[in-house]
Amino acid sequence: MSSLVIVGAGPRGVGLIERIAANAPELYDGSGLDIHLVDPHPPGGGRIWRAAQSPLLWMNSHAEDVTMFTDETVTMEGPVREGPTLHEWAGIGGRTFADRQLQGEYLGWFYERAVAALPAGVRVRHHARRAVRVVGAREGRQEVWLERGSPARDGGSSAGVAGVGGGYEVLHADVVVLALGHLDAELDDEQRALAAYAGRHGLVHLPPDFTADSDLSALVAGEPVLVRGFGLAFVDLMVLLTEGRGGRYEGEVYVPSGREPVLYVGSRRGVPYRSKIGYDLVGERPPLPRFLGPGEIDRLLALEGGFDYRRDVWPLIEKELGFAHYHRLFAAHPERTSMDWADFEEKYAAGGGADLRALVAEAVPDPRDRLDLAALDRPLAGERYGSAEEFQEGLRGHIEADLTRRHDDAHSVDLAVFLGLLSVYGQLIRLGGGVASSWHGFFSYLASGPPGPRLRQMLALSRAGVLRFVGADMEVRAEDGVFRASSPTVPGAVVEARALVEARLPEASVRRALDPLLRGLAEEGAGETGEGLLRVEPGTGRVLDADGRAHPRRFALGPYTDGRTPGAFTRPRTGGPAFRQNDATARAVLGLLCGGSGGVEGFGGAEGAGITGTAGAGTTGGSAGVGGSGGSEGAGTTGTTGTTGGPTGTGGSRDIVGEVGA
């Protein structure tokens, strides 16, 4: 009996099970397979999308833009297995922003369906506990150490789980896949210093965290609270501290309960993420990819000495997004252009730099119709306001203008650029750790912003005085027994508070992760990027060591790897980068388990290998060794990461929570 352990039962882990079920009829001819799914949270939603969270917290996408199923646009070797979007499954309006409880139920249903589709002889067992270590020789079976807890949830025995001293149990695995999702992290130097300062002076400091898990009870009604971060984590915080404390909206007016603190929010950009787009694309889609496709990625990967993100990659991103923008402008609004499209396209393809800017100026008379990525990225750059009150009015005007534009198809070039962003992300994944972190922040800011109604609530809260805007490049100082915040956007203005909240997810870093399993991989030599991400093989997700060797038995998927994607689920018919990765990894895993000989066998035992010095260490004897390290490398690509250059990120925030949709 072969054994696969998947650590992480969120959308990524259960999406892998769906791809195993889809590919097994073709690739797996073993006599049986036990799949052990390890996660203290329920399968499907995992931690982030679990159903057990506040009903006030919404999805970040329209229900029609959320799917866990592949379609014909996903480039992969495995078969397409279509299924309902969230709105089709739940029977709700496609334009609804469903709450996360409903999404958790959808993901749970998806998991049950994926398990039901597995071939006879393949069983799934959910272990509702944490995995804390993976050990084992490269050539032998792996051991996954679990904290003791409730028994495996399969309605049957727990065969294949061996006891181990020191309060742990062990799963013996032929293959291990890590699908850990967003993880807690130890504080960096700045956060440690702020936390220590808060402790000495009786202040409140809430470090980066998944907002739904943060203890907000220490934030006092009526008192100022400084908030760094203006993305999706802030939106959750805003909701839980207003409606979550009994406030309500009456049309465009917020009626406070009196239990709210006063939130002073700022960030590097100083503005919220751009609103979700509120209309559909009518007519021809931009033919993407055009200037950044597989061929360009191949050339970048083949460059002698490697590629430079700023020099080699960002210009291709700019040109691709510009092409999407102008293709839509010429197709949908030809009256706002002064050149034939065929002529423009030919010159655009050949041009670059100043020549390209001159072409756009000639062909697009109104500067408001031209794509300016720098201005989009940093709308407050160089802006100065005479007073804090003047800035409140100014930023409300910015939010209102963004809402108007993103819900008016006269500006459908914005939706074309959104599609361009999705296309670019799908290509950049192949570059792994060579892509700048600024790219991820830029993508999230433009493509993964909040629902329009959330921004309208933001405006109502601002008018009610519950929400105040600080500005761009917000600086926080700990001095004189308090926290103080300022921004060059409003010279001289200083906000003083006894509470500071870091409204963003913890940085994805292997060595700073609090997860002991991931830290253990780093300690034994797993490869890391300069940003601390786990290095994985682009085609299959195999974990790489510091020398670039792929581990034959360990795979990893998710935001802590350099193959990260914009989300574990996505918009239908947009290529689904995570689905491509899941398919490639599933095929590689199945090929490895089969070993090309009708089963996994003959590997010889590495039982009880390799762990010493841990409390009660030393495993019990395991089952007979298994093997067969051959098999398909899998196909498909995807991933992305960042370095320097291009648009700036939002204060290093990793605020993609797992969904993108217009």
Automatic annotation (TrEMBL):
Residues 622-652 have a biased composition (Gly residues). Residues 5-182 form the FAD-dependent urate hydroxylase HpyO/Asp monooxygenase CreE-like FAD/NAD(P)-binding domain. Residues 554-579, 622-662 are annotated as: Disordered. Pfam families: NAD_binding_9 (PF13454). It comes from the Bacteria. InterPro entries: FAD/NAD-bd_sf, HpyO/CreE_NAD-binding, L-asp_N-monooxygenase_NS-form. SUPFAM superfamilies: FAD/NAD(P)-binding domain. This is FAD/NAD(P)-binding protein. It comes from Streptomyces roseirectus.
